[in-house]
Amino acid sequence: MTDPKIVKATVTINYTADDGTSSSVTFKEYPADAGRNPPCQPLIDGLEELARLTTVFKFENKALIAFHEARKQVFIWRSKRETASTI
């Protein structure tokens, strides 16, 4: 069984820090970008921004654990799908 394919993605990240700084950023494919970037690019850009923020705010180790745990769950899901499709 093949994995689903991303057709469109949008990622929004908002935060406020205790020093009063805040930011809101949205990553999405704009019509002018259509065809030049893969549809997964907003997810990659969002992941990069989250990597920056988790490092700036000093919880990158927790973020890495969560990232790798999420990937592990996908590998398990994918394995179960492949096993089910061969039965």
Overall description:
Helix content is 49%, strand content 16%. It is built from two helices and two strands, in the order ββαα. Strands 1-2 form a two-stranded antiparallel sheet. Strand 1 and strand 2 form a beta hairpin.
Looking at this protein, list some descriptive labels.
87 residues; alpha+beta; 2 helices
Task: Itemize the secondary structure elements and their pairings.
Elements: E1 10-16, E2 22-28, H1 41-56, H2 60-86
Antiparallel strand pairs: 1-2
* Uncertain runs: none
CA-based gyration radius = 17 Å
**Residues in helix, %:** 40-55%
| SSE-based structural type | alpha+beta
Helix count from the secondary structure assignment: 2
Strand content: 15-25%
Question: Mean pLDDT, rounded to whole units?
Answer: 91
Number of strands: 2
- What is the helix/strand order? EEHH
**Overall outline:** flat
- As laid out across the biggest beta sheet, the strand order is 1-2
Strand count, sense and barrel status of the largest sheet are:
2 strands, antiparallel
Q: How far is it from the N-terminal to the C-terminal residue, by CA?
A: 12 Å
